[in-house]
Amino acid sequence: MEPSFLIQGPAMWTRAVARGERTGGNKKDIQEPMGSERVEMRKRQVCAAQGPAAAAPGPRGVGNRGPNACCFCWCCCCSCSCLTVRNQEEQRLRSASYELRTEDLPICEESPGPSLEEASAWAQSFDKLMLTPAGRNAFREFLRTEFSEENMLFWMACEELKKEANKTTIEEKARIIYEDYVSILSPKEVSLDSRVRETINRSMAEPSPHIFDDAQLQIYTLMHRDSYPRFMNSALYKDLLRSLSEKAVEA
Questions:
Q1: How far is residue 241's CA from residue 113's CA, in Å, rounded to a whole number?
Q2: At a CB cut-off of 8 Å and minimum separation 6, what does 227 contact?
Q3: What's the CATH architecture for 116-250?
Q4: With contact defined as beta carbons under 8 Å apart, do 142 and 234 qualify?
């Protein structure tokens, strides 16, 4: 009687074939699996092949990052905070600061148009020009044509800071003024000497409403000596005087 083999899987099938070869039997003597058994064997072979690959951890990559991986590396050796979150928070703070700047520094101060007498008085002294909102608006318009409007903006911001009494508001406005006009990283940095900068840097820990007084005086002097004479000879000022003169004659 020929021996019968119960084929349960790839391993036993291999062993069965091996025994048949050692005994000199023919492969036909071994009962081959039928259709359903062949399908079952194939399923087991696939499961056996996939099992070790699924259990083994894959390489760390773009799609397989650890829960504590940071933004700069693919490993999970660190648990640092994500820089993206910090950048979003900084952007939110900058947006809030920009809104505060926009509210505090309007494009032009609200004031009625100057009279001929008032505009003529601006030529007498720089102090008279800076004393009235109309004079500051006209001078600021001229500075904009010379790409030095930041000098007037800085001077105005310092004036606004002196009016504050709340400590928190003083600290916030002082920080904004520093970042906008004193910091060497700002595109609107004003020209200050090293002594004044060092004094401001030391005082920024606990700023007062007068923290920028020395810097404000320097910028005021710069506008007086450098920009004011050119404003007096500018077409903008001469056109304004001519327009006011014509209105005075018509009246």
A1: 12
A2: 139, 142, 143, 146, 148, 151
A3: Orthogonal Bundle (1.10)
A4: yes
Hey, what are 163's tokens? 């009016």
Residues 125-177 pLDDT 10s: 999 999 999 999 999 999 999 999 999 999 999 999 999 999 999 999 999 99
The answer to whether residue 20 scores a pLDDT higher than 70 is: no
What confidence score (pLDDT) does residue 217 get? Answer: 98
Residue that is written with structure tokens 């923290």 in the block: 211
How many residues does the structure list for the chain?
251
Q: How far apart are CA 225 and CA 229, in angstroms?
A: 7
Give residue limits of the domains in the chain: 116-250
Token digits for 153? 């903006």
Amino acid found at 56: A
Note the pLDDT tens digit of each residue in 49-64: 555 444 444 444 444 4
Let me know: does 215 contact 190? Beta carbons within 8 Å: yes
Helix axis angle, 149-162 to 167-177, nearest 10°? 170
pTM of the model: 0.59
pLDDT of amino acid 110: 76
- Full DSSP string of 173-200: HHHHHIIIIISTT-TT-----HHHHHHH
- The span from the CA of 185 to the CA of 104, in Å, is 22
CB 182 within 8 A of CB 215: yes
CA–CA distance, 149 with 129 (Å, rounded to integer) = 16
